[in-house]
Amino acid sequence: MTRRLRINLPALSANYRLFQSSCAGGRSAAVVKADAYGLGIAPVARALWGEGCRDFFVASYEEGVQLRDLVPEAKIFAFEGARAETAPLLAAAGIVPVLNHSGQLEAWRRLGGGGAAAVHLDTGMHRLGFPWGVEVEAFDGVPLELLMTHLACADEPDHPLNATQRQRFASAAARFRTRFPELCCSVGNSAGVLSGVEGDHGGLGRPGIGLYGGNPLADAASPVRPVVTMEGQVLQLRQVLSGESIGYGATYRASREMTVAVVGLGYADGLPRLLSNSGEAFCGGRRCPIVGRVSMDLTTVDVSDVPLAPGDWVEFMGEHISVDEVAAWAQTIPYEILTGLGSRYQRIYEETPATC
Questions:
Q1: Which one from 16, 61, 75, 248 is the annotated catalytic residue?
Q2: What is the pLDDT of residue 201?
Q3: At the topology level of CATH, where does 228-350 sit?
Q4: Which of 23, 83, 162, 171 has the fewest CB atoms inside 10 Å of its own CB, making it the most exposed?
Protein backbone atom coordinates (compact mmCIF):
# COMPACT_ATOMS: atom_id res chain seq x y z
CA MET A 1 0.00 0.00 0.00
CA THR A 2 1.51 3.31 -1.09
CA ARG A 3 -0.46 5.62 1.18
CA ARG A 4 -0.89 5.70 4.93
CA LEU A 5 -2.49 7.69 7.72
CA ARG A 6 -0.72 7.80 11.05
CA ILE A 7 -3.12 8.81 13.82
CA ASN A 8 -1.48 9.90 17.05
CA LEU A 9 -3.81 8.85 19.85
CA PRO A 10 -1.71 10.48 22.62
CA ALA A 11 -2.05 13.80 20.77
CA LEU A 12 -5.82 13.26 20.58
CA SER A 13 -5.86 12.61 24.33
CA ALA A 14 -3.78 15.71 25.01
CA ASN A 15 -6.22 17.81 23.00
CA TYR A 16 -9.12 16.38 24.98
CA ARG A 17 -7.37 17.29 28.23
CA LEU A 18 -6.97 20.85 26.96
CA PHE A 19 -10.73 21.15 26.40
CA GLN A 20 -11.55 19.46 29.68
CA SER A 21 -9.37 21.96 31.54
CA SER A 22 -11.06 24.83 29.67
CA CYS A 23 -14.57 23.84 30.81
CA ALA A 24 -14.56 25.89 33.98
CA GLY A 25 -17.08 24.42 36.39
CA GLY A 26 -18.22 21.86 33.85
CA ARG A 27 -16.90 19.01 31.75
CA SER A 28 -16.01 18.25 28.16
CA ALA A 29 -17.83 15.88 25.88
CA ALA A 30 -16.48 14.83 22.47
CA VAL A 31 -18.10 15.17 19.06
CA VAL A 32 -17.33 11.98 17.14
CA LYS A 33 -19.74 12.24 14.20
CA ALA A 34 -18.70 11.40 10.63
CA ASP A 35 -16.49 8.50 11.74
CA ALA A 36 -14.73 10.76 14.27
CA TYR A 37 -14.12 13.38 11.59
CA GLY A 38 -12.65 10.76 9.29
CA LEU A 39 -10.14 9.33 11.77
CA GLY A 40 -12.01 6.15 12.73
CA ILE A 41 -14.70 5.98 15.37
CA ALA A 42 -13.53 2.81 17.15
CA PRO A 43 -9.96 3.74 18.15
CA VAL A 44 -10.90 7.38 18.74
CA ALA A 45 -13.86 6.62 21.01
CA ARG A 46 -11.88 4.09 23.02
CA ALA A 47 -8.98 6.51 23.46
CA LEU A 48 -11.31 9.27 24.62
CA TRP A 49 -13.14 6.92 26.98
CA GLY A 50 -9.78 5.92 28.44
CA GLU A 51 -9.02 9.61 28.97
CA GLY A 52 -12.20 9.98 31.02
CA CYS A 53 -14.65 11.27 28.43
CA ARG A 54 -18.15 10.03 29.27
CA ASP A 55 -20.35 12.17 26.99
CA PHE A 56 -20.34 11.85 23.20
CA PHE A 57 -22.23 13.53 20.37
CA VAL A 58 -23.02 11.89 17.04
CA ALA A 59 -25.03 13.07 14.06
CA SER A 60 -27.54 10.25 13.70
CA TYR A 61 -29.17 7.20 15.22
CA GLU A 62 -26.98 4.94 13.06
CA GLU A 63 -23.80 6.56 14.35
CA GLY A 64 -25.12 6.31 17.89
CA VAL A 65 -25.74 2.57 17.66
CA GLN A 66 -22.23 2.03 16.30
CA LEU A 67 -20.79 4.05 19.17
CA ARG A 68 -22.93 2.25 21.75
CA ASP A 69 -21.26 -1.03 20.81
CA LEU A 70 -17.83 0.55 21.36
CA VAL A 71 -18.44 2.36 24.65
CA PRO A 72 -21.50 0.70 26.19
CA GLU A 73 -21.64 2.91 29.29
CA ALA A 74 -21.28 6.27 27.53
CA LYS A 75 -23.90 9.01 27.41
CA ILE A 76 -24.63 9.47 23.69
CA PHE A 77 -26.50 12.42 22.18
CA ALA A 78 -27.76 12.39 18.58
CA PHE A 79 -27.85 15.83 16.95
CA GLU A 80 -30.48 14.96 14.34
CA GLY A 81 -33.09 14.36 17.05
CA ALA A 82 -35.95 11.91 16.98
CA ARG A 83 -38.19 11.08 14.05
CA ALA A 84 -41.20 8.78 14.12
CA GLU A 85 -39.17 5.95 12.62
CA THR A 86 -36.13 6.39 14.88
CA ALA A 87 -37.65 7.40 18.25
CA PRO A 88 -38.28 3.82 19.48
CA LEU A 89 -34.85 2.74 18.26
CA LEU A 90 -33.12 5.63 20.04
CA ALA A 91 -34.96 4.78 23.24
CA ALA A 92 -34.06 1.10 22.99
CA ALA A 93 -30.38 1.93 22.48
CA GLY A 94 -30.34 4.49 25.29
CA ILE A 95 -29.37 7.31 22.92
CA VAL A 96 -30.51 10.79 23.90
CA PRO A 97 -32.08 12.70 20.98
CA VAL A 98 -31.38 16.42 20.64
CA LEU A 99 -34.90 17.62 19.85
CA ASN A 100 -35.02 20.36 17.25
CA HIS A 101 -38.69 21.16 16.61
CA SER A 102 -42.20 20.40 17.81
CA GLY A 103 -42.64 17.44 15.46
CA GLN A 104 -39.64 15.74 17.03
CA LEU A 105 -40.88 16.60 20.51
CA GLU A 106 -44.19 14.92 19.84
CA ALA A 107 -42.56 11.89 18.22
CA TRP A 108 -40.38 11.46 21.30
CA ARG A 109 -43.28 12.02 23.69
CA ARG A 110 -45.32 9.31 21.95
CA LEU A 111 -42.63 6.82 20.97
CA GLY A 112 -39.61 7.47 23.16
CA GLY A 113 -40.82 5.44 26.09
CA GLY A 114 -40.32 8.25 28.58
CA GLY A 115 -36.60 8.47 27.95
CA ALA A 116 -34.42 11.51 28.59
CA ALA A 117 -34.05 14.12 25.87
CA ALA A 118 -32.00 17.20 25.03
CA VAL A 119 -33.30 20.41 23.48
CA HIS A 120 -31.54 22.50 20.86
CA LEU A 121 -32.39 26.22 20.84
CA ASP A 122 -31.71 28.35 17.78
CA THR A 123 -30.30 31.59 19.15
CA GLY A 124 -29.29 33.12 15.84
CA MET A 125 -27.67 30.56 13.55
CA HIS A 126 -30.93 29.63 11.79
CA ARG A 127 -30.17 25.98 11.25
CA LEU A 128 -31.73 23.34 13.48
CA GLY A 129 -33.44 24.18 16.75
CA PHE A 130 -36.52 25.51 18.54
CA PRO A 131 -36.87 29.30 18.63
CA TRP A 132 -35.00 30.53 21.70
CA GLY A 133 -38.22 32.05 23.08
CA VAL A 134 -40.13 28.76 22.99
CA GLU A 135 -42.53 28.19 25.89
CA VAL A 136 -41.00 25.91 28.50
CA GLU A 137 -44.40 24.39 29.24
CA ALA A 138 -44.30 22.69 25.84
CA PHE A 139 -41.77 20.22 27.30
CA ASP A 140 -43.79 19.19 30.35
CA GLY A 141 -43.76 15.46 30.83
CA VAL A 142 -40.46 14.97 28.96
CA PRO A 143 -37.40 14.41 31.16
CA LEU A 144 -34.92 16.97 29.85
CA GLU A 145 -31.28 16.63 30.78
CA LEU A 146 -29.52 19.01 28.37
CA LEU A 147 -30.27 22.41 26.82
CA MET A 148 -27.92 23.47 24.04
CA THR A 149 -27.29 26.01 21.33
CA HIS A 150 -24.62 26.43 18.66
CA LEU A 151 -22.59 29.59 18.16
CA ALA A 152 -22.32 30.67 14.52
CA CYS A 153 -19.10 32.68 14.97
CA ALA A 154 -17.30 31.05 17.90
CA ASP A 155 -14.01 31.02 15.97
CA GLU A 156 -14.14 34.84 15.96
CA PRO A 157 -14.51 35.64 19.67
CA ASP A 158 -15.14 39.37 19.11
CA HIS A 159 -17.94 38.88 16.60
CA PRO A 160 -21.05 40.66 17.95
CA LEU A 161 -23.33 37.71 17.19
CA ASN A 162 -21.57 35.71 19.93
CA ALA A 163 -22.75 38.12 22.61
CA THR A 164 -26.27 38.16 21.18
CA GLN A 165 -26.49 34.38 21.11
CA ARG A 166 -25.08 34.01 24.61
CA GLN A 167 -27.54 36.55 26.02
CA ARG A 168 -30.48 34.82 24.34
CA PHE A 169 -29.36 31.44 25.59
CA ALA A 170 -28.83 32.72 29.15
CA SER A 171 -32.36 34.11 29.15
CA ALA A 172 -33.82 30.86 27.85
CA ALA A 173 -31.75 28.74 30.26
CA ALA A 174 -33.06 30.75 33.20
CA ARG A 175 -36.66 30.07 32.10
CA PHE A 176 -36.04 26.36 31.50
CA ARG A 177 -34.39 25.92 34.87
CA THR A 178 -37.51 27.16 36.65
CA ARG A 179 -39.13 23.90 35.49
CA PHE A 180 -36.04 21.70 35.09
CA PRO A 181 -33.70 22.84 37.88
CA GLU A 182 -31.06 20.14 37.24
CA LEU A 183 -30.84 20.88 33.52
CA CYS A 184 -27.31 20.86 32.12
CA CYS A 185 -26.43 23.48 29.48
CA SER A 186 -24.09 23.32 26.49
CA VAL A 187 -22.97 26.25 24.35
CA GLY A 188 -19.38 25.81 23.24
CA ASN A 189 -17.94 23.93 20.31
CA SER A 190 -14.11 23.76 20.13
CA ALA A 191 -13.66 27.52 19.79
CA GLY A 192 -16.44 28.28 22.24
CA VAL A 193 -14.94 26.08 24.93
CA LEU A 194 -11.54 27.75 24.56
CA SER A 195 -13.14 31.18 24.83
CA GLY A 196 -14.70 30.20 28.16
CA VAL A 197 -18.40 30.21 27.29
CA GLU A 198 -19.10 27.08 29.32
CA GLY A 199 -18.07 29.00 32.42
CA ASP A 200 -21.32 30.94 32.09
CA HIS A 201 -23.37 27.86 32.90
CA GLY A 202 -20.97 25.28 34.30
CA GLY A 203 -22.07 23.11 31.44
CA LEU A 204 -20.98 20.56 28.87
CA GLY A 205 -18.43 21.53 26.22
CA ARG A 206 -18.73 19.98 22.76
CA PRO A 207 -15.30 20.09 21.07
CA GLY A 208 -15.03 18.58 17.62
CA ILE A 209 -12.40 19.82 15.15
CA GLY A 210 -9.97 20.84 17.88
CA LEU A 211 -9.79 17.27 19.17
CA TYR A 212 -8.52 16.13 15.80
CA GLY A 213 -5.83 18.77 15.32
CA GLY A 214 -7.67 21.53 13.44
CA ASN A 215 -7.17 25.06 14.75
CA PRO A 216 -10.54 26.15 16.21
CA LEU A 217 -9.56 29.84 16.22
CA ALA A 218 -9.70 31.96 13.08
CA ASP A 219 -7.10 34.58 14.02
CA ALA A 220 -4.80 32.95 16.57
CA ALA A 221 -2.10 30.33 16.68
CA SER A 222 -3.39 26.81 17.09
CA PRO A 223 -3.50 25.63 20.71
CA VAL A 224 -3.96 21.97 19.77
CA ARG A 225 -1.57 19.26 18.70
CA PRO A 226 -1.67 17.72 15.21
CA VAL A 227 -3.22 14.28 15.24
CA VAL A 228 -3.22 13.03 11.64
CA THR A 229 -0.25 12.47 9.35
CA MET A 230 -1.05 11.83 5.67
CA GLU A 231 1.80 10.23 3.75
CA GLY A 232 2.44 8.80 0.32
CA GLN A 233 5.27 6.60 -0.86
CA VAL A 234 7.69 7.52 -3.63
CA LEU A 235 7.06 5.21 -6.58
CA GLN A 236 9.57 6.65 -9.03
CA LEU A 237 12.10 9.47 -9.37
CA ARG A 238 12.24 11.23 -12.73
CA GLN A 239 14.66 13.67 -14.26
CA VAL A 240 12.82 16.46 -16.03
CA LEU A 241 14.71 18.76 -18.39
CA SER A 242 14.26 22.51 -18.46
CA GLY A 243 11.30 23.45 -20.63
CA GLU A 244 9.48 20.12 -20.25
CA SER A 245 6.01 19.94 -18.77
CA ILE A 246 4.73 17.80 -15.90
CA GLY A 247 1.31 16.19 -15.45
CA TYR A 248 -2.15 16.52 -16.97
CA GLY A 249 -2.79 19.61 -19.04
CA ALA A 250 0.92 20.51 -19.05
CA THR A 251 0.12 23.13 -16.42
CA TYR A 252 3.65 23.15 -15.00
CA ARG A 253 6.77 23.72 -17.09
CA ALA A 254 10.20 23.20 -15.59
CA SER A 255 12.38 26.32 -15.51
CA ARG A 256 15.47 24.19 -14.82
CA GLU A 257 16.50 20.56 -14.76
CA MET A 258 14.57 18.96 -11.93
CA THR A 259 14.24 15.75 -9.97
CA VAL A 260 10.57 14.91 -9.50
CA ALA A 261 9.18 12.33 -7.11
CA VAL A 262 6.05 10.52 -8.29
CA VAL A 263 4.14 9.76 -5.07
CA GLY A 264 1.39 7.15 -4.77
CA LEU A 265 -1.36 9.36 -3.35
CA GLY A 266 -3.90 11.60 -5.07
CA TYR A 267 -7.28 13.24 -4.93
CA ALA A 268 -9.04 9.87 -4.52
CA ASP A 269 -7.29 9.80 -1.14
CA GLY A 270 -8.50 13.23 -0.12
CA LEU A 271 -5.53 15.31 -1.28
CA PRO A 272 -7.35 18.27 -2.84
CA ARG A 273 -6.81 18.85 -6.54
CA LEU A 274 -6.57 22.56 -5.77
CA LEU A 275 -3.10 21.86 -4.38
CA SER A 276 -1.92 21.41 -7.96
CA ASN A 277 1.04 23.76 -8.52
CA SER A 278 0.37 25.49 -5.19
CA GLY A 279 0.60 23.08 -2.26
CA GLU A 280 3.63 21.63 -0.58
CA ALA A 281 4.88 18.33 0.80
CA PHE A 282 7.51 17.59 3.42
CA CYS A 283 10.34 15.17 2.72
CA GLY A 284 14.06 14.95 3.27
CA GLY A 285 13.84 17.45 6.09
CA ARG A 286 12.31 20.29 4.11
CA ARG A 287 9.19 21.52 2.33
CA CYS A 288 9.01 20.79 -1.37
CA PRO A 289 6.50 22.17 -3.91
CA ILE A 290 3.82 20.10 -5.58
CA VAL A 291 4.36 20.51 -9.33
CA GLY A 292 1.80 19.66 -11.97
CA ARG A 293 -1.74 18.60 -11.33
CA VAL A 294 -2.69 16.32 -8.48
CA SER A 295 -4.21 13.29 -10.18
CA MET A 296 -6.46 10.53 -8.86
CA ASP A 297 -3.72 8.21 -7.60
CA LEU A 298 -0.48 10.16 -8.05
CA THR A 299 1.10 13.47 -7.10
CA THR A 300 4.38 14.87 -8.37
CA VAL A 301 6.73 16.79 -6.07
CA ASP A 302 9.90 18.76 -6.88
CA VAL A 303 12.61 17.04 -4.80
CA SER A 304 15.59 18.42 -6.68
CA ASP A 305 17.27 19.57 -3.48
CA VAL A 306 16.60 16.61 -1.18
CA PRO A 307 17.95 13.05 -1.14
CA LEU A 308 15.09 10.62 -1.79
CA ALA A 309 14.74 7.11 -3.10
CA PRO A 310 11.80 4.99 -4.26
CA GLY A 311 10.03 3.64 -1.20
CA ASP A 312 10.61 6.74 0.92
CA TRP A 313 7.60 8.44 2.50
CA VAL A 314 6.42 11.98 1.78
CA GLU A 315 4.23 13.92 4.23
CA PHE A 316 1.34 15.94 2.78
CA MET A 317 -0.21 16.74 6.15
CA GLY A 318 0.98 16.26 9.70
CA GLU A 319 3.62 17.60 12.06
CA HIS A 320 5.25 19.81 9.42
CA ILE A 321 2.25 20.79 7.28
CA SER A 322 -0.91 21.40 9.26
CA VAL A 323 -4.42 20.43 8.23
CA ASP A 324 -5.21 24.15 8.40
CA GLU A 325 -2.56 24.93 5.77
CA VAL A 326 -3.87 22.21 3.50
CA ALA A 327 -7.39 23.58 3.91
CA ALA A 328 -6.24 27.12 3.13
CA TRP A 329 -4.49 25.98 -0.05
CA ALA A 330 -7.66 24.13 -1.04
CA GLN A 331 -9.87 27.16 -0.25
CA THR A 332 -11.87 25.18 2.28
CA ILE A 333 -11.88 24.29 5.99
CA PRO A 334 -10.06 21.55 7.93
CA TYR A 335 -13.38 19.77 8.60
CA GLU A 336 -13.74 19.03 4.89
CA ILE A 337 -10.14 17.86 4.58
CA LEU A 338 -10.41 15.37 7.44
CA THR A 339 -13.86 14.02 6.58
CA GLY A 340 -12.79 13.67 2.94
CA LEU A 341 -9.93 11.26 3.62
CA GLY A 342 -10.29 8.26 1.35
CA SER A 343 -10.64 4.60 2.23
CA ARG A 344 -7.45 3.35 0.58
CA TYR A 345 -5.03 4.22 3.38
CA GLN A 346 -3.21 1.90 5.66
CA ARG A 347 -4.29 3.37 9.01
CA ILE A 348 -1.75 3.21 11.79
CA TYR A 349 -2.97 4.13 15.27
CA GLU A 350 0.05 5.20 17.26
CA GLU A 351 0.00 4.77 21.02
CA THR A 352 3.15 6.88 21.40
CA PRO A 353 4.12 10.00 19.43
CA ALA A 354 5.91 9.12 16.22
CA THR A 355 8.86 10.89 14.64
CA CYS A 356 8.91 11.78 10.99
A1: 248
A2: 62
A3: Lyase, Ornithine Decarboxylase; Chain A, domain 1 (2.40.37)
A4: 171
